[in-house]
Amino acid sequence: MTATPPVAARPKYVGGAVKRREDPRLLLGRGRYVADIHLAGTVHMAIVRSPHAHARITSVDTSRASAAPGVLAVLTWDDIRDQAGPIPCIDVYPDSIPVLQTALADGVVRYVGQPVAVLVATTEYGAEDALSLVDVQYEQLPAVLDLDGATAGDVLLHPEHGTNVVTTIAQDVGDVDAAFATADHVYEETFTIHRYLPVPMETRGVVAEVDPITERLTLTTSTQFPHLVRGFLAGVLGMPESRIRVVAPDVGGGFGAKCEFYCEEILAPLLALRLRRPVKWVEDRREHMIASSHAREQKHTVRVAVTGDGTVTAVDARSWTNNGAAYCTLATTPASISSAMLRGPYRIPHYRARAHSVVTNKTPLAVYRGAGHPQAVLVMERMMDIIAADLGRDRVELRLQNMLTPEELPSDRGTAIVLAGQVVYDTGDYGYCLRRAAEMIGLSPSWAAEQEAARAEGRYLGIGVASLVEETAIGPYESAVVRVDSAGKVTVLTGSSPHGQGHVTTFSQLVADELEIDLDDITVLHGDTDVVVDGVGTFASRSAAIGGAAARRAAGVVKDKALQVAAHLLEIDVADLEWRDGAAVVRGMPDRSLSLGELAVAATAWNAPLPGGMAWNLEATYQHQAAGIAFSNATHAAKVAVDVETGQVEVLDYVVVHDCGTVINPTIVDGQVHGGVAQGLGGTFFEEAGYDADGQPQALNLQDYLMPTAGDMPWIRTDHMQSPTPLNPYGMKGAGEGGATGAPGALVNALQDALASFGVTLASDGPWTPERVLALIPAEVDQR
Amino acid sequence: MTSARVRAELITVTVNGVPHEAAVPGRLLLADFLRDRLGLTGTHDGCAHGTCGACTVLVDGDAVRSCLMFAAQVDGSHITTIEGVSPDGELTPVQQAFQDNHGMQCGFCTPGIVCSLTGLLARDPAPSEEAIMDTLNGHLCRCTGYQNIVKAARQAAGRPVEGSAPESIGQGSDR
Amino acid sequence: MRPANFDYRRPTTVADVLGDLASTPGARVLAGGQSLVPLLNMRLVQPPVVVDINRVEGLDELRERDGRLHVGATVRQATVLASERAQRAVPLLVAALAKVAHPQVRSRGTVVGNLCHHDPASELPAVAVALDAEFTVAVQGEGIRLIAAAEFFGEQFRTAVPPAGLVTGVSFPVAALGTVAGFHEISRKAKDFALIGGAAQFRLDTHAEVVDARVAVTGLGHRPLRMTAVEAALLGAPPTDDALRTASRLATGEVVAEVNARSSAGYRRRVLPVVVHRALRAAAARIEVSA
Q: Could you tell me if B75 lies within 8 Å of chain A, comparing CB atoms?
C-alpha cells in the first residue's frame, strides 16, 4: 500500500476569532424579542403593584376598573388562589424556612412593587390607564430594610416563623479554632456590599396563548431557561408539562435577572386560559427596577489567622445576605457561593463560614452575573491587601505564597455549593495569572516610588489586583441533538438558551470541527421547548462547557454512524475508513469517499435499508453530564487616579488575565470579559439600588440607576491562558462571569492604594461616588 | 380623568422611503407608531424616558429618541429606522464594523447605536474621536462594556480601532 | 410607561398658542420634549392639553440684533452648538451646551425649553444668570413682557412665566472681542446631570488684565447663583492660575440640601471653589486661542 499523500489539515474553527453568525440579522433590525411579537387578537396585561414596603391589604375594589372601556378582566389573589401555587425556590437547604411568594399578594404586601392585582385591556395604553381605577386600601406596617434590623427581628416579615433569618449555610474545613490559637496575627474586618440591579437592556416580557389547534398553553417569555420555566409553570398551575410549550425568542440580555421564574409568567397564562386570547405584557423600565430580581447585597464579618511568615492559616467568616421579601427561584445561591468560595485561590487549610439569608422589605434578591463570587472576591482580596500592608509585605508576593500551585490541583476544598456540588478545584495556574497581570499593569518594585512622585505633583494614583477562582460549568447536564438532512446540512438543537452569548457561532464552531464541515452548513436551534425537547438553560457560565460539549459529542456520534453507513455501502470494514472534510474516505484512496449528504440519503433510503436494525436517519441525541464543577480563574488589575479636590475617580488602565480552559472563540471570550468588567465598574462607582427609611426604592429609572457609558470605561487589556478541564472531552470552562467577579475587588484595592496615605481602610464595595471618596480625603489636601 | 374618546391627528410621514398616512392619537409615541402601526420592530423600547437610546431613529437626518416624540409631531418628516439603514439588506459599513469587531452581544441596543452612528457619518464622514464618543455616550449597552462598540465606530469612521481614548474624554472632565 | 390621554394641539401662531393655553388650565407647552415627555411617559404630569409649538412661525430664529443673540423658543440646542455665529457671540452658552446631554437629545432639545424647565442641575440657567440673559414672554391680552434672568428663575422647576404665558425666546449680550468663556461641572459619571456646575467668562483689557468677569454656579440651591465676590476679585489683575484660585476661594452661596439631592449640601459646598476655579481655568485656557 502506498503512503497516503499529505493532505493540508483543514483549518479548525475552535480557537479562532470567528465572526458571529447571529449578527447580520440583528444589525438589520430583524431580531425578534418578546415585545416584537404581535399575535392577532392580542390583549394587554398590566399589574397593580404595592406602593408600600410593608402593609396589610384591607380591601381591593375592582369595580371601577372592570367597568372601564376596553377592560376585559381584573383579578386579585382571591380570584386565582385555587389555580396558582407559590413560586418555587429550587436552591433551598433542608432546614430552610419556606418564604415563598405568590403570583399576587395574599393579604400582605412585603415590598414596593409586589403585584397586588392584574388587569387586561384591549390596548397597552388602555391597560395602563385602568391601573389607577383599581382601588386598593392598605394598612401600613412597620418596614425593616437593613440586615442588622432584620436580624434583630423586631419587625418580622413572616411572624409565623418567629425570625427573619430563613437559611443558614455552614461550611466547615479543618480546625479553625486551633489555627487561631496558634496564629501570630489575627485580622478582623466587616465589609458591606450594596444592592445592585442587573438591568438587561431588554426588560422582561411575556406573551401567553392557548394554541387553538392543540389547545396547549404557549408561553413566550424573555428568559434564560425556557425548559425550567416549563417545569415551574406546570407545577404552579398543576398542569402536565406536555400541555405547555415555552419559547424564549431573542432575549435582550439577562445577567441573572431572567434566570428566575416570575409572577407575570403565571398571571399571563392564567389570563390566556380564561380569556382564550393572547395575553401580552412587557415590563416597563420602572417596573423592572422594583419587580425584577435585585442582587449582591451582603454583609461579611471575617477573622483571618496569619502566621509570622505570612501564611494565612484560617478564615472564620460570617455573612448575611439581604434576600428581600421572599425567596426567588434562586435564592440561597449567592450566599452559598460566597461562603463556599471565599478563600478563592488561596490554600488556607482551616475555614469556617456561616452564611445567613435574611428577609427584609425590599425586592427579592437573586443571582446576578457572578452570583456570590464578586462579594467573596472583594472580601478576600481586601483582606490580602490589609494583611500585606500590616506585615510590610509585597501584595503580589504574599498572595503567591498562599496560592495553590498547579501541582496541588486537583484540590478538594471541603466546601459545597448548592445545586452545583462539592468544590474541587480542577486545573489552573493561579500564580501565572497574578504575575502576568501585575506585570502588565506595572505593579513592579518601583511602583511605590512612582506613586510617591505622582503624589508630589498632586496626582493620587493607585493600583489594585484581585485574583479569583470561579465556579463555572455547573450541571446537572445539557442535551443536544445533531441531525443531518439529505443535502448534508446539519441542524443542532441545544437546550442551552442564549441571550447574547453567541451560541449559534460557538456551537457551530464545535460541530463544524467535529464533522469537518463549513459553519454555513450548520443551523443551530434553541429556545423552544417544542423544538428542543430537553434542556436546562444558560446561566452559571455553563453553556459552552456543558451545552457545547453535548453538541460536539452528539456530532461525534453522528459521525461514527455515518462511517458505519459508509462501510456498509462500500462493503468494507469501518476501520478502513477515515473522516475527512465532511466525508467518509477510504484510507489511502482519497478519491473514494461518500459525503455527509450522500450518507444521510443512504440512511433514509426505503429501497436499501440499513443493515442490522441500524436506526434510520443520521441523527443523534447526546446528554453531557457534568462530572463536577469546572473552575475558571483570573487576576484583574486596575490603575486609577483620584481627583483629591472633587473625589472623582478615573480608571486609567485595566488588565484581565483569564483562564477559562479551552477557548472556542477568543473574541467572544474577550467580549464577555469586557461586559463583566463594565458591570463590576458600574457597581463600584455608580450603580446603587438604594431605599429610603420607609422602604421606598430610590432607583426607579435609568437616570437614578446610573450605569457606565462608553466614556466611563478604560481600555481593557486581556491576556488568556488555557488550562483545559478534564471534566469534558474538549477542556472548556465557563467565561461568562469572571469579568464581573473580579472587577469590584481590583477597583476597590486600587482606590485603597491611591488613598492609603490618608490612613483609610476601605471596607465597602461602594459605590464609590465622588462624594463618598471625597469624604475620605482631608479638606486641607489641596496640592494644586 | 382621561376621556376614552380622543381626537386623532392625521399625519403624512415617509418612513424608510415609503410614504404613510395615518390617524394617530396625540399621545401615541413615535416608537410605538413605528413598531405597532408600521411593524418596524427593529426600533427597541429600552426605557421610555430617553436615557438608554435603544429607540434612536433618524428624523430628517437627526438622531432622536423616538420614545420622546409623538407620532403626531412627525407629520411631513422623513424617518429612517434600522430597517431602512440598509435598504438592500446588505450590511452597510457601519453595520459591518459591528460584526467585524464583535460590537454587539444580545443585539437589543444595537439598532439605536447603528442609527446614531449612521446619522453622524452622514453629516461628517470623518468625525473626531470626541464626536464619536459624544455620540456613543448617548447609548447604554449592558453586554459589551463598550470597547468593541468603540472599535466598530472607529472602523466605520476610518480611524485606527485599537487603544485608549484621549485622556480628555474619560469622565467628561476638563482636567 | 405611556402618557395618559391628552388633547394634542399644534397651533401655528403665537396668538393661537396663547389661546390654547388660556382656554385650558394645566395645559403644557411642548417644544423639544426632552424634559416634558419623560414626565408624561411616567405619568408624573398629566396635562389635559399639550400645545406643540414646533410649527409656530418665527420661533425657530437664531439671530443677532441690537448687540444681543436672540434664540427663539424652538431653536435646537444642536443648532446653537454647531453655530459659528453663536460660538463667536456667546461662547459661554456654547461651552455649556457641550455639556448638556447627548447629540440625540440636543437634536430635539431647545435652549429655551431647558431654561424654562429649570432643573436645578441643569447647566444653562447658570449661563443665563451669568450673562444677564433676557426672556421674551408673550402673555395674552398684554403683549410682550421682558423678564431678566435674575428675575426669571423661581424655586426649582419654577419660573416667573405667568400662567398661560409663552416664552418665545431668550437673548444674550454679544460678547466683546477677546472674551473667553469656560464651563466646568462635576457629575457622577461621564455626561450625567451636574452635581454642581460653574460658568465663567471674562475679557482682558489692553494691559492683559481681567475686565467684565462673570461667574455663576448651578446646582447649589433653587436657582443659579452669581459669584459676585469672585468676579470682583478677578478684576484688574492678570488671570494667572494663582489669581483664579485665590478668587475662587471667595465663592459662596447658600446650598439647599433637598434641591439637587444627588449629592449632599456638604459635598457641594466643599467643591464649590474647585468648580469655580476650573471653570475660570477653562476660560483662561482659551485666551491664546481667541487672541
A: no
Residues A599 and A560 in one domain: yes
The whole domain housing A495 covers 475-625
**CB of A473 closer than 8 Å to CB of A630:** yes
Q: Please report which confidence band the pLDDT of residue A541 belongs to, taking 50, 70 and 90 as the band edges.
A: confident
- B169 interaction partners in chain C (CB closer than 8 Å): 190
Nearest CA in chain A to C102: A709
List the chains bordering chain B where 3 or more Cβ pairs fall under 8 Å. A, C
Residue C1 lies in a domain: no
Inform me whether the pLDDT recorded for A686 exceeds 60.
yes
* A651 and A611 co-located in one domain: no
**Is position C57 within any domain?**
no
Percent with pLDDT over 90 in chain A: 92
> If we measure between CA atoms, which residue out of A414, A423, A401 comes closest to residue A467?
A401
Q: Is residue A370 part of a domain?
A: yes
Query: What secondary structure letter does DSSP report for A10?
Result: P
Residue C41 and residue B68: Cα distance in Å, rounded?
Answer: 9
C-alpha cell at A296: 449582591
pLDDT at position B1 is 39
Q: Nearest Cβ partner of A711 from B2, B110, B172?
A: B172
Q: Is C274 on the interface with A (CB under 8 A)?
A: yes
Nearest to C5 among B2, B29, B72 (CB): B2
Looking at the fold, whether C112 and C144 belong to one and the same domain comes out as yes
* Rounded Cα–Cα distance for residues A669 and A657 (Å): 12
**With left for phi above 0 and alpha for psi between -120 and 50, is residue A50 left, alpha or beta?**
beta
C251, part of any domain: yes
Residue (of A661, A636, A422, A419) closest to A540 by Cα position: A419
Q: Do C107 and C76 form a contact (C-beta atoms < 8 A)?
A: yes
**Beta A716-720 vs A649-659: how paired, if at all?**
parallel
C67 plus C125 within the same structural domain: yes
Burial of A779 (0-12, 13-18, 19+ CB in 10 A): exposed
What is the set of domains in chain B, with CATH numbers? Answer: 9-169 (3.10.20.30)
Question: Does the reported pTM lie above 0.90?
Answer: yes
Distance from A351 to chain C by nearest Cα, in Å? 39
Last residue of a domain, one of C153, C173, C193: C173
Q: State the cell numbers at A233.
A: 409553570
Both A339 and A263 in a single domain?
Answer: no
Comparing A369-383, B2-16, C95-109, which segment has the lowest mean pLDDT?
A: B2-16
A559 and A487 housed in the same domain:
yes
Predicted pLDDT of residue B166: 52
Contacts of A710 (CB under 8 A, 6+ apart): B133, B136, B137, B139, B146, B149, B150, C190
Are A28 and B86 in contact (CB < 8 Å)? yes
Task: Please tell me the distance in Å from B174's CA to the nearest CA on chain A.
Answer: 12
Instruction: Identify the domain containing residue C141 by its residue range.
Output: 62-173
Closest chain B residue to C98, measured at CA? B134
Residues C126 and C165 in one domain: yes
Interface of A with C (CB under 8 A): 124-125, 128-129, 284-286, 645-648, 685-686, 701, 703, 706, 708-712, 769-771, 774-775, 779, 784
Per the domain annotation, does A379 fall within a domain? yes
What's the number of domains chain C is made of? 3
Residue A548, SS3 per DSSP: helix
**Cell numbers given for B20:** 404613510
Predicted complex ipTM: 0.96
3 state SS of A742: helix
**Minimal Cβ distance to B51: which of A499, A702, A716:** A702
Helix (H, G, I), strand (E, B) or coil at B14: strand
Number of domains in chain A: 3
Residues from chain C contacting residue A645 (CB–CB below 8 Å): 271, 274
A270 and A341, same domain (yes or no): no
